[in-house]
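#struct-help
A.M.: can someone run this one for me? Single chain, 431 residues.
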Amino acid sequence: MQPLHVSALRLLLAFQFALLCSLAAAQGTGTVVSNPYGSISVTGATLVGNTISNIRPGAIIQLGGVPGTADSYVEIDFQGFNIAAGSTLTIRSGAPGQTVFLWNTDANPTTIDGALRAEGNQGAPPPKLLFANQNGVTISGGGSIFAPNGLILSGLGNSWTLGQPVINQGVVDGGPLLDVEGLSIGGGGHFHGDAIVLSTPTRANNPVYGAHFLANGLQLYPSTGTDVSLTLHAYGTAPQVLNVIIYGNGFVWMPSSWGSATTAPSNNAVIPPGGSAQPGVAEPSYGGGSMIVQAVGSLRVASGPTNDFVFPGAIAFRSAGDLDLNGVVIDQGWTTTGKQFQGLFFESPRIISPAGTIQVLTNNPNWVNFSTLPHQRVRAFSLAPDASGGASYISTDGVSTHLNTYSATIEAAANGQCWICLINSTPVDMR
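D.P.: on it. Structure tokens below:
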């Protein structure tokens, strides 16, 4: 499975929201703003002209019979969007290639206690689905969104930094693609997608177990098969917290650049290989975050065009199967005063990199920790003060590389035990 780039649907989201925010409809109704697919019909609701009202439990919105083309979509604005427990709203396709945008345009958050579903019809696959509410979206423990041909779920407004959280306590399934965007992303529910994109300026986690950080991850599942291709997108001005558990095999991607195909902000910058921090320039405000990516199967770092994985904070990769660093440059360099547990941690019974040398860039005085000796050589570099008054990378092969197990030390700390007693402070040369 290849890493997934930012989807074309997300580009439509960024382009359309400014227009949609200016539209209004009567309370409790939906307005069909655009429709290239032919006549819409409804069951369990009232359709007069372009207005859908009196929406009852079990309502179905049936799309017309015109096939979709590239970038085509139906757009329906709702002046208030909530689904009560026991209720279902179904969007049913009328032809192949259709996409539906559902927008909440009033000032209230959305709560889904029932089910929002996209379904196929008469041989046509289900429509792709986007739902957005800049006031926030909550899927309750009994709620669900099922979109087996692709889903974007957004709590953002007409800016990547304006909006409210997306909280999932139920089940959200996007089939081949689940793209979740929110001021934060949380909840103990299940996120399903063969490819999953998480975009937030703050945090994506489920912090309900206190300092037991390994239990505080969002729960990510494949929609079909056993693999999840995960794209992480963190871009805020303060330190981010990203914590996920993949229930299957994982492919994780977090590059320094998306390329020119999208207007999405880049992931927060680190000092690149061969780069330096200039004298007198303050360290970035977003530095010092925390990331945990776990997989119950194998875990591989995806390369992509930039062949790097960047995050200015602690990075912990943990897998029950192989951990494949894939020759990708793992770069967290942002400071010369790294703190405890702000280093790099790789935990697996078998750490490999058949695509090439393991390359890691960290901060002075942080360590690069492996739970076991990797099967490829390791090159390590640390960002350290230089004679100019700035900072640049120095080789720390055999100095910063250590053998330590992340889960053992972090759980000991959470239990109030002597975690430092578990630390092996003797460096190991892994060149």
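A.M.: thanks! The first strand starts at residue 30 and ends at 34.
D.P.: also worth noting: The chain has a mean pLDDT of 93.
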